[in-house]
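== Polypeptide entry ==
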Amino acid sequence: MSKIATNGSVAADIAKGWKPNNYLTNMSVAYFQPDDWFVSPFVFPILPVQLSTSYYYIFDKGDLARDNVQRKPEFGKATPMMFGSKQELYSCEVDQIIIGIDQISTLNYQRSAAPGIIDPRRSKVRLATEQLKLHMDHAFADGYFKPGVWTNEWAGVTTTPSGNQFYKFSDSNCDPVKFIGDRRVEMMREGRRRPNVLALGVETYEALKNNASILDRVKYSGSTANPATVNANVLAQLFEIDRVVVLNSTYNKGGYGSTNMDFVCDSKGALLAYAAPNPAIDEVSAGYTFAWDMLGNGQYLAFDQYEGEKGTHTEFIEGLTSYTSKKVCDELGVFMKECV
């Protein structure tokens, strides 16, 4: 027979340590994205800058690549080499997010013995961080990963390709290794660098994993215990590049109160590029993320916490960032659309 609760018995249980509606302390549900799914830090290098807006030099490729050495005439000298340069502008704007904390309702969580799981201050700092990183992913997609950014742009088709077209990677006629190899040769000739990164939309990646030509190249490399598989590392080896990056980042494109999930970057796109391993003077890169420390503390992602107005019993978490995703060397990027 179950025990009938009375005011006295409830009071006695509370005195012994029982708490009604106690929150679980070992789990919660939050759809935070895995860190390695974010796009912006993993393709092009981040270049810290001291000024929010300024110029950088571009030395003339034609002058640099031309053989300007002359035969020295007897009793004379060679004509001095002409070496041109121009300036290009970058500009970093400041973006901000503010998240409020109600100090009164916060007491419920603090008194429920679960501050480690849903401490409003800690969780909202993480939320602000997630939002800023997602915002940077959108800047990456807009600055690099869409049609119209790169001069060297190709489109996938299912009929006989012509011009800047290729068989879609999902088409049985497509040989991606040859296609990427041809683009590699072009980039080496025009940009004087071998591409070292291939960024793939999620559907493009899946199509390459199941492409008949690629499967044929790896089918004898496995065994019963360790069957042949195609993953990002295998694709990097087949394409002779350093890295294959799958653009997994997702977002809700619906308004407040609705959910309409999609990938941040075109899931059917691909970008073959040379990305400088580290920013350096006299080094080229298809793109750079110019990042300005807007508070002078050396950080392009900055956070602050401050009190709200008196009587509101609120406080706020602020996140700031200042950066721009900029194409720097057009010859070092090849964008492929409609790959699937």
Notes: Residues 23-27 have pLDDT under 50 and may be disordered. Residues 120-143 form the longest helix (24 residues). The chain is about 25% helix and 25% strand.
